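User: Quick one: structure for sequence A, then sequence B.

Assistant: Sequence A:
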Amino acid sequence: MSNFYTDNPDLMFTLENLEMEELVALREENYKQAEKFDYAPENFEDAKDNYKRVLTVIGEVTGERIAPRSRQVDEEGPTLKDGVVKYHPLTDKNLKDLKDAGVMGVMLPRQYGGLNFPTTIYTMMTEMVARADASLQNLIGLQDIAETICEFGSEEQRQKYLPRFASGEADGSMDLTEPDSGSDLQSVRLKATQGPDGKWYLNGMKRFITNGCAQIHLVLARSQEGTTDGRGLSMFICEACPELKVRRIEHKLGIHGVPTAELQYNNVPAELCGKQRFGLIKYVMSLMNGARVAISGQALGIAEASYREARKYASERVQFKQSIDKFPAIFEMLAKMKTKLTAARTLLYETTKSVDLRFSYNQLDERSEKAKYYVKVAAVLTPMCKALSTEIANQIAYDCIQIHGGTGYMHDFDAERYYRDARITNIYEGTTQLQVVAAIGGIMQRVLDPMIEELLGMSCDGLDCRLLKMLDEMHKKQIEAVKYVADKKDSAYHDLRARNLVENETIVLVGLLMLRDAKKDPKRVPLAERYILDAAHDFERNYQIVMSGDLSTIDRHRDVIDY
């Protein structure tokens, strides 16, 4: 049996080297929380030691208990009978194990029973949970709902709901999607009406709701009569009740252990969360930062499991009198898988650091320059991170089956489950295409340039200077390409080439982050080198596509479709 934290050198490296001093000090109110709570850290080293101990506990729970149960949970899943959803008994055991470990309110403030951990540490936990059972991560990942109530709800709502989340008494769901709206949340139609007594009531349908059987629901609803866009939407909190019916649970390709429900609201009593009309334009946008990070962590966990399964199988499978990992075609695939996995993890935890800083500076003063800066940075990094992590997870899960050959296609092996579970990650909480839409504005505005320029200024001591020069040249070309697209002043061309620009921004930033980490650990130099040299070809292709295009490109694309 294994510990999913201590058996992962990359995760341990991340905790040791991410430079979290600033965000932890902010989170701990410059360690004044230690005066109020005897279990709060007194300094950064104390905090990091606490994180390490909790991650080790979760690593043991995930590796020794949750992972061995995952195949049976996938096979049998939850049930719906007479309108009542029941988790698989092993899912109940998993949740109890995590509850007993005291991690159900990881990010919540201590006064509500939480641990006050930053998003960065919470994401490491969810990554390990997803490696063990991707379905279970969906249930744990919904702690973002409690975070939203904490940030935008009233003190009365915090006192009412947050201790229940922290103790594990209550679980949650995020009810956004409707049968006809999909990703177009501006068109949400579920109605919120206010009665003569001032209380709110919800009526309508929601679809594809992860853990729709939850006790506490965060619901996006139309509160302003006569509106049709996002300005008429507000956020509400409601609880499970007879008026809220689970009509069905979906029969899905993957993540079988978590129920995905269709919900019917029949005059469901609800509370307004925050202010009216801010549901989409502020609260869901903030919620999306957490949701993108959570799904990135889930994807990374699946990718880690897939890579390990592929490597194990390749070392044991003998063909032509030698294990297949000795064949160049196979070890080349494994090297590429490992490189992509490390790249995704590097960006994920740089992103969580920015999300943590955004939250903390916003709490201090949302009008401050640092708060405004990290709001912009998080708004670019979270979609970039989700796009990279989820696409890479799908590629690694695909290659895992390929290395297994026909065996990987069989239901008797975990490879096919990882492949099925990975597929949803680049769809829900916004498809990759929508992540591009979310990121491109900040890229056109060059939001990440200060971060990129600071990284470009690092010395190349211990590194191949050629790699840093390559990334510097790529950055200059990226600025040129962005200007080229902006100068077209054509929204259709801008949208057509957005993905090329987002991919290239990601390549430059991730390459620099991997070089930064390679300076701290020489063992990471080959990973950085492999990533940059491989990505250079993709960067040049994207650059040439952008720079050689003109407005007739769109018509040529339509001609191909219409042929």
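Sequence B:
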Amino acid sequence: MLPQRPLLSLLLLAISVTPIVADTLQSGRSIEGRLSTIATRTATEVKLDGVLDDEVWKVAKPVSGFVQSEPQESAPASEDTEVRIAFDADSLYIAAYCHDREPKKLIVSALRKDFKEDEQDTFGLALDTFKDRRNGYIFYTNPEGAKADQQFANEGREINASWDAVWWVATRKVENGWIAEIRIPFKALRFEPSDQATWGVNFARRIRRKNEVSYWSLIPRAYTFARMSLGGDLTGLDAGTPGRDLRVKPYVAGSTVRPTGGVFDQSGDIGVDFKGALTPSLTLDATINPDFAQAEADEQQVNLTQFSQFFPEKRDFFLENSGVFYVGDAARNTGVVLAPTPDEDLLPFFSRRIGLSSQGTPIPITAGGRLTGRLGGFSVGGLFAHTKEVSAEPSNLWGVLRIRRNILKNSDFGAIFMTRQATGRDDSYNRVYGLDATIRLPGNLDWSAYALKSESPGRHGGQSAVRTSLNREGNFVHVKAGFMQIDPQFNDELGYLRRTGIRKTFTDFGLRPRPQALRRFGVRELHPHIVWNYFNDLHGKFLAKRLHNGFTVFLSNGGFFEYSANPQADTLVRPFKIHRDSAPIPKGFYDWHVHQFKLNSDPSRKLSVNLDLGKGGLWNGRQTIISPQVRIRPNYRFSISAGLSRTKVDLDSLNAHFVQSLLTVRSNYSFSRNMFLDALIQYDYDQKVRNTNIRFNFIHRPLSDLYIVYNEQAFATPEAPVPGRSLVVKFTRMVSF
């Protein structure tokens, strides 16, 4: 038995050390060396009002010490940010005190939901609820309390900006900065239940007037906020179970439609969407008779190529969790360099093939479903839809199944199966299946590859497609090189591809020096770069090239300008009609060169300007491109932009001379954080047609909307028919259980 005095000494020592240990854990480092903080439990209600006077905020110790990613990586942030974290049985709470010595210079550019975070002052939170260092959620707010939320996978290779959660935020401007209080219900997230759980976490702050980005756990400027392998730890959570989060969202819609030259036809429609968690990490979505009348109209483009135009998906049902079905490497993962789009020579899965014709006209969908989440160590995704029979299309059943398994450190392999099966007047089908992998190698190297095979009746011989690439992303140098082959008989009716029977080699290389001497001239970064694509047929014969040799100057205020030389060549296997008033361009090989200049001013200003100039060859002639755009944003409620895309074409050998011009006017007004009015007006000078799309959206309760959509198409010709018009009113109401 020990003497009582030593026992008393040990007890006093333990009591004295406990606060030190608690304080270290509150904002210290984990065993892995990561930044770590503890969430504080609260037994009392937290009032979201932007005032940090709740009892829990007096107890919870803040984390701070943010460091810059931009403009001076690893330097302390120019303004302090303090973040406190708390939780109760139902929700996670975050309080952010964003200090600012010049609060009158805060920049707020938008009040609407899912605003552009890079154009204003923001605070951001990233949560990796499964602590797999790959996947999670991002929440942003600005000093006016606007909300933006995203779901990301594989550290940003897939970003789903259309993901929506029920969460709340209150902000307040104070004399030395601004404060944000955020509440996120646990049932809005997916996670594995655990007492004293540990999640991945990171915080971001943007000070827009300085174009400064800082993080709690540093992320190099070559990467985005979704780089969770560089995040910290949030410990001490007792989130219970996420619950089923069952949502039922019925809608009722009425419309009156008059086709161009026709008469008005009134109709009504009803439908319903379901969402529910089958397990804590697996979510089922289903829809009956979905309606997409509220989707924004496609923005028209001048197309002088032999290929069909690419239009992005804008329908909510197909956008949500769309990253699960993505195959291939993503666009460059950086917030500094302008990222190219994914490889449009072949997108294995392109959801616009479902429920839309090749001309973009809707094909009714009777029902659809989507299953996404984690199951038995795999990330899984399933999608199905049934479309009705229309005059040119049979009824079809569409399906996609995607599985992926994480391996090693931030690597994965997966498989995909896609099918279209006619269920109406014929028995045609198309099936595509394959494997893919992304392996992270030492030295910031990523290797990505996929192999696909298609099956369609009446097609024989090669029906495969393969692609592989090696990518390195760094602060000073980025480089990508790869190879793609598409067999002549490959047929992917759920994908987007431009041509078959090709071998494509590609490279993307650039440097990012930041000379100190240029800072006083407002220059942040120089970016000499090349993006080269070469195409041969399967016998090695040269077919085409798309080369881009550019030099970009990024300015400290967020603007940039660029000069590029763009040699191009292409082979026409059949005559190609470039314009309705010109003779077809004969088949054969064509080689030309285009010089281009681009200028973008600071997008956070009340007045910003974009300019795109181009001059050079085009097929067997010449082209001159002038595309100016002006945006005026007097305040965070209203913005209006007008842009002209004008291309003058001279094809002397065909005696064809024409101008294609598109005028696009876009305006947005936010009555509040829950009520918006958007207008898109496009005028095609060549065809003398005006398209108008006006959308009113009132979020009358979380995830519940009232839409009023007006569309008009009118021709400005002497023999013009009566304009086509439609008015759609749609009301949705989400009920949560």
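Confidence is low (pLDDT under 50) at residues 1-26, 332-340. The chain has three helices and 42 strands.

User: Thanks, that's what I needed.
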